[in-house]
Design a protein that fits this description.
Layout (H helix, E strand, L loop, with lengths): L21 H49 L20 E4 L5 E4 L7 H4 L5 E5 L3 E3 L8 E6 L7 E11 L8 H16 L3 E13 L2 E11 L7 E9 L6 E10 L15 H9 L1 E2 L1
Antiparallel strand pairs: 1-2, 2-3, 3-11, 4-5, 5-6, 6-10, 7-8, 8-9, 9-10
């Protein structure tokens, strides 16, 4: 005896046949799979972006450390010396406003810097922080990125330069010192390139600046902008070098020209005074 057949539904005359629910089920599974794939891709992209930011911060910090280790104070006459890019443990005097005033005090400097002492002061906002003393710079203040301390966004450092004879002052002399500083910086930054040189005035003194840019080995091609200024107070043997750095991630700094002319680095440079 043959097994019974399963019932077969036959639509009444004029009624369309019922469709199987399977295509809808399959379609729903396909959409769910697509959503899962998109979510995984989004997570991977976020994690990759986080790694790139971390790598950028590490690379920038490493570049700044190389600047501090390798730079030496430029001199008109060749001598062994050391200078720019960390900061000295001199006096910080709070001002009545939101800024603080840095005053370079000889007695507070390391012995290696006292013979190269230059008296000066400048104001810096609460967004910048005075850095620990080193043997290579008079002072350095840094502005941190939104991620917090240790992630440098901009910095302003003051070192020294020797002028011999003391009354020497010309664009040719400034260019010679800027050449020395450029050679030191080129070894610290990837794809270092000087953009131009331009006259500047610091505390009423005609000076000269070299503008440069570099980058990091990141897919976003994050740029580093820099400006080095050599200033020689007339009649004095020692002058100063001012190094300002920023990145293309900064809200205020979009080119090397902006350093010292826009944003808070401009406020610092305008307040710089020889004492």
């Amino acid at each position: 005896m043959a097994p019974p057949r399963p019932p077969v539904y036959t639509a009444p005359a004029g009624e369309p046949p019922k469709k199987s629910p399977m295509p809808w089920v399959l379609g729903g599974c396909g959409c769910l799979t697509l959503l899962i794939i998109l979510a995984v891709v989004a997570v991977l992209m976020i994690n990759r972006a986080k790694r790139q930011v971390t790598d950028f911060k590490r690379d920038f910090k490493s570049a700044l450390e190389n600047v501090e280790e390798n730079r030496t104070g430029p001199s008109v006459v060749p001598r062994s010396t050391s200078s720019p890019s960390s900061q000295s443990d001199t006096t910080t005097v709070p001002s009545s406003g939101p800024a603080s005033t840095y005053i370079n005090v000889k007695e507070k400097l390391p012995s290696s810097l006292q013979s190269n002492f230059v008296a000066f002061s400048f104001n810096y906002s609460k967004n910048f922080e005075l850095q620990p003393q080193s043997d290579t710079n008079f002072v350095k203040v840094e502005k941190y990125a939104a991620a917090g301390k240790g992630n440098t966004s901009e910095n302003f450092a003051v070192g020294y330069a020797w002028f011999n004879p003391p009354d020497s002052q010309s664009d040719a002399l400034y260019d010679k010192l800027l050449d020395q500083l450029g050679q030191q910086l080129s070894g610290s930054f990837h794809n270092y390139r000087e953009v131009k040189r331009t006259p500047v005035t610091v505390d009423g003194i005609d000076s000269r600046a070299a503008l440069f840019q570099a980058d990091f080995k990141d897919s976003a091609k994050t740029l580093i902008y820099g400006k080095t200024i050599v200033v020689h107070p007339p009649g004095k043997k020692n002058g100063v070098t001012i190094l300002m750095l920023g990145t293309s991630l900064s809200r205020d700094i979009k080119s090397a020209d902006d350093l010292g002319t826009k944003g808070e680095t401009a406020d610092i440079l305008r307040s710089f005074k020889f004492l």
